[in-house]
Design goal:
The complex is a heterodimer. Chain A is an alpha/beta fold. Chain A has a single domain, classed as Rossmann fold (3-Layer(aba) Sandwich). Chain A contains six helices and twelve strands. In chain A, the strands form three sheets. In chain A, strands 1-12-7-4-2-3 form a six-stranded parallel β-sheet. In chain A, strand 10 and strand 11 form a beta hairpin. Chain A is globular, with a radius of gyration of 21 Å. By secondary structure, chain B is α/β, with parallel strands linked by helices. Chain B has three domains: 119 residues, no CATH class; 248 residues, 3-Layer(aba) Sandwich (Rossmann fold); 58 residues, no CATH class. In chain B, strand 5 and strand 6 form a beta hairpin. In chain B, helix 16 runs parallel beside helix 20. The chains are: A alpha/beta, B alpha/beta. Strand 9 of chain A pairs antiparallel with strand 9 of chain B, so a sheet runs across the interface.
């Protein structure tokens, strides 16, 4: 292994920083110590988080469906499975989703134990939970623990998230706060998913399903399980 | 003139005359302007959001040593190996040695401009590895053996027809007519590549010192797949990418999405803080982070232009630049195009060879206005001009300006010469830009305003006389 240049680079940095840089052009709000929290300048968050999440999801082409209880969730998931002619699915164990996945009667690959990525690639859908839903961006926050690892939410062509209404938060700062509270430290894998995979690399025309899921469905459950 | 400058002027002139190219770029950017403004209007205060994003980067860049050490410590605590590379060769050698030691054969790469900067893909191919670009735009330009055209939209200059031809020739695919069909061809090729690759390479948009995470922004999902499926992962990160706090992302991620592509949020924003942990069932077994200097510290040592290191590579300054829109991305001959490229390339690759980029600007300031982290871009272009001249003066400029000053400070001489211009004006106009024109280098592409019928002095005298 080649030796690294840590000390050389640090020395150069310290020499360079011996002269202070002007910050006049940053203007009002450019002083970190005295300014108000930056969330104040972002888009406003209305009281009804579910409505905001749904509106943003619509813009992103995420399909949001409401389910009254566990039975309705299972029925909705079965309907989606029939609509899309799923032959096999991948999932992990989580209270809100596992009964509904079991009720599908399809072969299920579980990713919370050792699995083969080639098997996962052949599944028609990945069904997972999440840490929270971010209303301001229409995003879904996943970690390895909440969404069955790093690949389940991105490799199969259809990603279905099952979440309860109580998992809605306002903005990214709220999501970070929640991560700090619910994990001993920020986990090594965290991802904000904002709509199905997309690209505009050909003539800047939007195409869904570039490499990740072509479809993203959120089942929003009214009641907590149990 | 440097060879870079000669090449630049040649390419820029050709592209400026290419009306088809200009139409293509205008059409591609037209949609961006609409979407960007729509998203900007949703902010409670876009200008204040810019100021706080700039303040976060100012804090990081001006305490770079502290935050880099914090980042390294946090990354290492979770089993990530951190390597500090002084230049491109050190970075590429290290990455090649990681690959060699692990018996790697196939490498899948997600988009990294820092990797482009040091020609990482080519260096690894030379060592015998198969290197595949997974970002759709990067994949297309890789197949065409071209550099990326734009830091965010690499294949923006190509039509679907050209891309279909490339796919037919290089992948043996059937002709395709829509962007959707073309995207699906690439998707099918790539899915096998993700599963087969032993090593993934990524860049990073931000590196969070507080928690020791890299933040990667993308729309396609290729970065998530490239950083998850291969057993080895290497991320290459410029030292200026570090930010102090996790909460800084709450403003930087939406700003990057809005300024970069007119989105509310980019599709995937992923935080990577380490290799597969004991409680995880997937993810890379080994994770290496390469922190790259490559003369960023030279730019850091210039306090006047240090804020150019605030750049989050969103490409907003390219999208609004009248020069970029006319000469296109390839004419620059640099990794980073547009105003930010013109500002930083002289620092990264030598002022005298790259000063011409700072002179090729109308100084309109659209770039500074568009920048989400408030880099004073157009003033930096001026400062590069000043530094270039101070460092290597043009011998004939001083006598010419001295002569001009001598002439202009003698009213009698001026009064005598002004009417001559009125006579000579039409003659100059007639020969404008031709062989006989002594000023043809200037006038060939510029109009000479017709001299006025009377001077201001004459007008003023007449006006007072008629009262």
């Amino acid at each position: 292994m080649p030796a690294d240049s840590r000390e050389k680079i640090l020395r150069r940095i310290r020499e360079a920083l011996s002269v202070e840089a002007p910050k006049r052009h940053l203007g009002q709000g450019g002083d970190r110590a005295s300014s108000r929290p930056p969330q104040e300048w972002l888009p406003r968050i209305p009281h009804d988080l579910a409505a905001l999440f749904e509106k943003n999801s619509q813009d992103l082409k995420t399909d949001v469906r409401h389910c009254r209880d566990a039975a309705a969730t299972a029925a909705e998931l079965s309907r989606i499975a029939r609509e899309n002619a799923w032959k096999s699915v991948a999932s992990h164990l989580f209270p809100l989703g596992t009964p509904a996945v079991a009720a599908l009667g399809l072969p299920v690959l579980l990713t919370d134990q050792a699995y083969s990525k080639h098997d996962l690639e052949r599944c028609d859908a990945g069904i997972s939970g999440c840490d929270c839903l971010v209303a301001q961006t229409g995003g879904i926050l996943v970690t390895s623990a909440s969404a069955g690892g790093r690949a389940l939410s991105v490799l199969p062509p259809h990603h279905v998230v099952i979440a309860s209404r109580s998992q809605l938060v306002g903005d990214l700062s709220d999501a970070f706060d929640l991560l700090r509270k619910s994990h001993p430290s920020i986990p090594p894998f965290v991802s904000f998913i904002t709509g199905p995979s997309r690209t505009g690399d050909i003539e800047r025309i939007l195409v869904l399903g570039a490499h990740g899921p072509k479809k993203l469905t959120v089942l929003l459950v009214d009641e907590e399980p149990g | 003139m440097s060879t870079e400058s000669v090449q630049f002027h040649h390419d820029a002139e050709r592209l400026t005359r290419d009306v088809r190219h200009r139409g293509l770029i205008q059409k591609a950017l037209g949609g961006y302007y609409v979407k960007r403004d729509e998203q900007k209007s949703r902010y409670t205060d876009w200008q204040m959001a810019r100021a706080s994003a700039a303040a976060a980067k100012y804090e990081a860049v001006n305490h770079l040593d502290t935050y880099l050490l914090e980042l390294t410590e946090k990354l290492e605590a979770r089993g990530t190996k951190v390597f500090w590379a002084a230049d491109g060769a050190e970075a590429a050698d290290y990455i090649a040695s990681v690959a060699r030691n692990a018996g790697v054969r196939r490498i899948i790469k997600s988009k990294t401009m820092t990797g482009e900067e040091i020609h990482l893909g080519q260096a690894l191919e030379k060592c015998g590895y198969e290197v595949v670009e997974s970002d759709l735009g990067e994949f297309i330009v890789q197949l065409r053996e071209e550099p990326p055209y734009h830091i965010v939209f690499p294949s923006m200059h190509l039509t679907r027809g050209e891309i279909s031809d490339t796919f037919q020739k290089k992948l043996g695919s059937a002709p395709a007519e829509t962007p959707e069909e073309l995207t699906m061809i690439a998707r099918d090729v790539m899915r096998q590549k993700y599963c087969e690759a032993d090593m993934g390479i990524s860049g990073a948009n931000f590196a969070v010192a507080e928690t020791g995470h890299l933040s990667i922004t993308e729309n396609e999902g290729n970065a998530r797949l490239s950083t998850t499926l291969p057993r080895l992962l290497v991320s290459i990160v410029g030292i200026e990418k570090v930010i102090p706090k996790l909460d800084d992302l709450a403003v930087l991620l939406p700003m990057l999405a809005t300024a970069g592509a007119g989105q509310n949020m980019t599709c995937y924003n992923t935080l990577l803080g380490g290799p597969r942990a004991a409680e995880e069932t997937d993810g890379p077994e080994e994770f290496h982070v390469v922190l790259l200097d490559n003369r960023r510290t030279t730019l850091l040592a210039d306090p006047e232009q240090r804020d150019a290191l605030h750049c989050i590579r969103c490409g907003a300054c390219l999208n609004v630049c009248p020069i970029f829109k006319n000469i296109g991305g390839h004419s620059y001959g640099t990794t980073y195009q547009g105003p930010i490229g013109s500002v930083i390339t002289p620092h990264l690759r030598g002022l005298q060879s790259w000063k011409h980029l700072s002179f090729s600007s109308s100084l309109c300031g659209a770039c500074s206005e568009a920048c989400p982290v408030k880099i004073d871009l157009h003033h930096h272009l001026l400062q590069n001009r000043r530094n270039a001249i101070a460092n290597k003066p043009v011998w004939w400029e001083k006598p010419i300006f001295a002569g001009f000053a001598w002439f202009m400070s003698r009213p009698a001489l001026y009064r005598f010469a002004a009417p001559l211009l009125r006579v000579g004006g039409p003659v100059l106009h007639a020969i404008r830009g031709r062989f006989f024109d002594p000023a043809r280098l200037w006038t060939a592409t510029r109009d000479l305003p017709p001299p006025p019928r009377e001077s201001f002095k004459e007008f003023w005298r007449k006006r007072n006389a008629s009262r």
